Amino acid sequence: MDKKIDKQNNEFEFDTLAIRAGHHRSDYQENTEAIFTTSSFVFKSAEEAAARFGGDEDGFFYSRVSNPTIKCFQDRLAALEEGEACVATASGMAAILATMLGVLKAGDHVVSSRSIFGTSTVLFTKYMEKFGIGFDFVELSDLNAWKQAIKPNTRILFAETPSNPITELVDIPELANIAHSNNCLLVIDNCFCTPALQKPLKMGADIVIHSATKYLDGQGRCLGGAVVGNSKIVGEDIAGVLRTGGVAMSPFNAWVFTKGLETLNLRMKAHCENAIKLAEWLNEQDAVEHVYYPGLKDHPQHELAKKQQSGFGGIVSFVVKGGKENAWKVINNTQLLSITANLGDTKSTITHPASTTHGRLSQELRDETQISDGLIRVSVGLEDIQDIQNDLARGLI
Ligand SMILES: *Cc1c(COP(=O)(O)O)cnc(C)c1O
Q1: Which of 198 and 361 is assigned the larger pLDDT?
Q2: Any idea of its EC number (predicted)?
Q3: Quick one: fold of 2-262?
């Protein structure tokens, strides 16, 4: 065990926890976290097997339920988000699915912000609604709209802040008050900020969701997700869905994410530094109609971003003049940036949301969420900023 660090989390700072929390050494005393690629664990006796399965004794028995490598990632992320419990999942979508299945039942209702990850919208409206769960969508930053959309059977308020792709924010403490005065849980998808820039649980949220695929990995290698919150809702109800429903993380992926967490703070700072430079540069280009980045002083929620985030994030979206034709021209003229939908990578990526990540949404919903045909999303990586700007300049004419 690493100097019993996970028993004394509150004595250590973020960067220390990111590197050491959750690590229990095996008898070999390895310095680096080991990868336990085993599907099951051996018992000393039939009595021990029965006690582990029955929950009378702590310990590992089957990797769908728990595994030392997965547990290390879970405990480390819980320490960083300052939550009691964390469950790791096969993907970010699996984290959202497990949360919904763990908390809701048929007849319940959810209010969600409108501009969320496209696949989350599809999960809610195409699949969850089939099982008798109702959804209403509201403008993320409009607190009155949230209040008005709540019904007697509403159980969850779900929000992504900042939102994808246009980096809109909601005031988390205010939304938490609304949730709690209506007996609802506030669920925040913290994918864009990560705990390095924003800690929703400390601001009153009940559950934090992650797509670990993005910044937690940080180098675009593995799919994974996580749910963080208190030990009853996350540690029992949502963990129970994992144990039974099987959307578990693989030990190898858990190891990659664990190592990713060690550099999370450094990487997020570097992403933020490059992103503000790119946003300011784009703002000066004649071919650009609008830039969305919370770090810009003309972003409508710049002050809120300064208050609830410790950095503005690595996602910059912008609208080019001339709609889809010119947006595609910018994308097709890049030689360096990766044309791909992933984000949070050291490699900068460029996406046309209206025809990819948000292509399954109706035109009406795209209009409401400002996903216009000229919109481009850049996940600003860690290459030299001058090279990133030069690459975008090729098509910005
Ligand atoms: C990518 C993403 C997800 C889904 O995560 P996967 O790991 O791709 O399943 C959920 N929310 C946000 C904000 C995302 O960017």
Answers
A1: 198
A2: 2.5.1.-
A3: Aspartate Aminotransferase; domain 2 (3.40.640)
User: CB atoms < 10 A from the CB of 126, how many?
Assistant: 10
Give alpha helix (H) positions in 82-188.
92-103, 118-122, 143-149, 172-181
Asked if residues 78 and 228 have their Cβ atoms less than 8 Å apart, the reply is yes
- Domain-by-domain residue ranges, the chain? 2-262, 265-396
Superfamily of domain 265-396 in the CATH hierarchy? Aspartate Aminotransferase, domain 1 (3.90.1150.10)
252-274 pLDDT, tens digit per residue, is 999 999 999 999 999 999 999 99
Question: 3-class SS at 88?
Answer: strand
380 Cα: distance to centroid of ligand 1 (angstroms): 17
Instruction: Express each pLDDT in 154-201 by its tens digit.
Output: 999 999 999 988 999 999 999 999 999 999 999 999 999 999 999 999
In this structure, the number of other CB atoms found within 10 A of the CB of residue 231 comes to: 12
